[in-house]
Write a structure and sequence with these properties.
The protein is mainly alpha-helical. The chain is built from 6 helices and no strands. The protein has one domain. About 70% of the residues lie in helices and about 0% in strands. Helix 2 packs antiparallel against helix 3 and helix 4 crosses helix 6.
Length: about 140
């Protein structure tokens, strides 16, 4: 008995295509908002300035010149790399329009949450403020 190796061409209805497009748009709005929250989240500790980083870079460079201990040179070299990257990231600050991202999130989050089974608590644990969840129509459940 021979079986056909030809695969059937899958036909997607226009309604299904529209539903997939809606799902992608909702997921994109949720992802963009969560990314925006991550980028604008305050960092712990004292805020560093470009001046303080440059000052520490000078100190590290001086210590590198003065030491002959290979382990110390390794640690200082890594600190120098980290400080340079931090300084570069400060200079290329990304401006995030959280108002627009929040608006898109509020419009999409309830349907996305329902479809994916995401609870109020899960949203809160990833940093979404309760006021935003309330505006989106996502309520606490017991």
């Amino acid at each position: 008995m021979a079986t056909s190796t030809k695969s059937k061409k899958r036909v997607v209805s226009p309604e299904h295509k529209a539903a997939m497009a809606t799902g992608r748009a909702e997921a994109r709005a949720v992802k963009n908002y969560l990314d925006g929250l991550e980028l604008t989240r305050p960092k712990r500790g004292r805020k560093r300035t470009a001046d303080s980083i440059n000052q520490r870079l000078s100190t590290v460079a001086a210590e590198l010149d003065a030491t002959s201990d290979p382990m110390k040179r390794l640690a200082l070299t890594q600190e120098q790399i980290d400080l340079s990257q931090e300084l570069a990231s400060m200079e290329t600050k990304v401006d995030v329009d959280m108002v627009a991202l929040e608006k898109a999130f509020v419009a999409s989050a309830a349907a996305y949450s329902e479809r994916k089974g995401i609870s109020y608590g899960a949203w809160r644990k990833v940093g979404v403020p309760s006021a935003v969840l309330s505006a989106a129509g996502i309520r606490r459940t017991r």
